[in-house]
């Protein structure tokens, strides 16, 4: 049996802000089609790590590879990744379809083709019929799914989630995390997921990396941890 392909390789990466070492010689890999969670308290380096994968923070030392390609020095728009932010970052004045079309249109995709792709992703995420609604007319869970659809239309190699459920109440959080996990498995998405919530990490992950003060403190499957 062939070994799983690498989706992301983080190779001895450090990040300094002046004299502060925010991420200290961290190495891990995310296999293609796997969901790996970075878990830890605020300030442990998990979001900085995610942002270095996205290209939103430069690496001080080490290498970042996506699909075996060294992207360490590439800008965010030159990496085949999409990020779902904590705030969802939906455009409040744009309707759902316009929000989801925005990425492909900004990259020069034909308008009819962009709308076709957007409709398909919205159907996949159970949002058919909501294309003409504004974000303010959606529930928190629906806004979350629009943010995911907007990331998926770009067909990224890697999908990044930064504390995606922190704005939802406890009951909705459980439902949406289950939806994210089912979607990830169904579409075989390669996902790097950041959370401070241990229960959430255990529920969605194939593999969990526990971070503490910029280092990896522990890692393994949910069962092992």
**Percentage of residues assigned to helices:** 25-40%
Strand order of the main beta sheet, please? Answer: 6-7-8-3-9-10
- From the spread of the alpha carbons, the general shape counts as globular
- Calculate the mean pLDDT score and round it: 90
Our count of helices gives 6
Sheet with the most strands?
Answer: 6 strands, mixed
**N-to-C series of helices and strands:** EEEHEEEHHHEHEHEE
- State the secondary-structure class: alpha/beta
- Unreliably modeled segments: none
Report the span from N to C terminus.
27 Å
Classify the beta-strand content into a percent band: 25-35%
Report the strand count.
10
Cα-atom radius of gyration? 17 Å
List keywords for this structure.
10 strands, alpha/beta, 225 residues, 6 helices, 4-stranded antiparallel β-sheet, 6-stranded mixed β-sheet
Report on this model:
With 225 residues, the chain is of the alpha/beta class. It contains six helices and ten strands, in the order βββαβββαααβαβαββ. It has helices at residues 46-54, 96-106, 111-124, 140-152, 170-187, 198-204, and strands at residues 6-17, 20-31, 35-39, 61-66, 69-70, 81-84, 158-162, 191-195, 207-212, 215-220. A six-stranded mixed β-sheet has the order 6-7-8-3-9-10, sandwiched between helices. Strands 2-1-4-5 form a four-stranded antiparallel β-sheet, covered by helices on one side. A hairpin with a 2-residue loop joins strand 4 (61-66) and strand 5. The radius of gyration is 17 Å and the shape is globular.
């Amino acid at each position: 049996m062939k070994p799983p392909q690498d989706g992301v390789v983080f190779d001895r990466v450090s990040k300094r802000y002046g004299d502060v070492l925010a991420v200290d010689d961290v190495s891990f890999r995310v296999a293609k089609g796997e969901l790996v969670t970075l878990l830890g308290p605020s300030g442990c380096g998990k979001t900085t790590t995610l942002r270095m994968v996205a290209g939103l923070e430069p690496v001080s030392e080490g290498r970042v590879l996506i699909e075996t390609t060294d992207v360490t020095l590439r800008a965010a728009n030159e990496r085949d990744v999409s990020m779902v932010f904590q705030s969802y970052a939906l455009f409040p004045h744009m309707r759902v379809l316009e929000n989801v079309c925005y990425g492909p249109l900004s990259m020069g995709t034909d308008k009819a083709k962009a709308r076709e792709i957007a409709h398909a992703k919205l159907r996949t995420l159970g949002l058919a019929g909501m294309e003409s609604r504004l974000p303010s007319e959606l529930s928190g869970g629906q806004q979350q799914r629009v943010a995911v659809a907007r990331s998926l239309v770009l067909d990224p190699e890697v999908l990044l989630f930064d504390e995606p459920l922190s704005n939802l109440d406890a009951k909705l959080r459980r439902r949406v995390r289950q939806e994210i996990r089912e979607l990830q498995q169904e579409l075989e998405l390669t996902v790097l997921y950041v959370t401070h919530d241990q229960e959430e990490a255990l529920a969605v992950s194939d593999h969990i990396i526990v971070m503490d003060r910029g280092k990896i403190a522990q890692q393994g499957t949910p069962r092992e941890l």
